[in-house]
Design brief:
- This protein is an all-alpha fold and 187 residues long.
- Helix content is 74%, strand content 0%.
- It has seven helices and no strands.
- Helix 3 runs antiparallel to helix 7 and helix 4 packs across helix 7.
- The longest helix has 52 residues.
- The radius of gyration is 26 Å and the shape is rod-shaped.
Length: 187
Amino acid sequence: MTAPTIDNVAPNLLLAHAPLNSALFNAGLVFLTFIASLPGLTFTTQRAWLKVHSWMMLGCIIVTLVIGLEIWYSTLQTRANLAVMWDAEGPQMQQLLQARWQCCGYMKTPFHTDSTCPSPLAASAKPDCVGPFSNFANGFLDLVFTAMFGMVALDAILLLSGLVVIKKREEEERYRHIDEKCKYTRI
């Protein structure tokens, strides 16, 4: 990980507190689901692999939805969550955040003396960091959970498409059995 700078301190701080293990699990599940779809696309007369793919796709939908809801729920308490993050960080990170938004302290106090906030008098003239930091966090996290919900919609479309293909193959198999009983040959 690179050293924090004014440009990357806020996104890195938010990503450090994101559910990355869940996201990695979800990415692995999506990849395995893709791998499971390949035999279903290759063997055009079988439905078993498509059924496996559909169940795995349902799992992807649920996991992605839960992650998106978790991130969305955390945005409902952004200021409280950011206060905990702010307090947990050291002076260097807090000074970078103060420099990024030209503010002093999360809620005025405590603030760290630096070039942005050289004294209590200067700090009282500047706004606190809760507003700009929470606005940035909300915009950043809104983008993340909106993308997650968009993926749920795409997964649902893929699930429905897979179910349509399963039904079509079932119908073709039914007609093939009827033709075999009546001793018709395939055209």
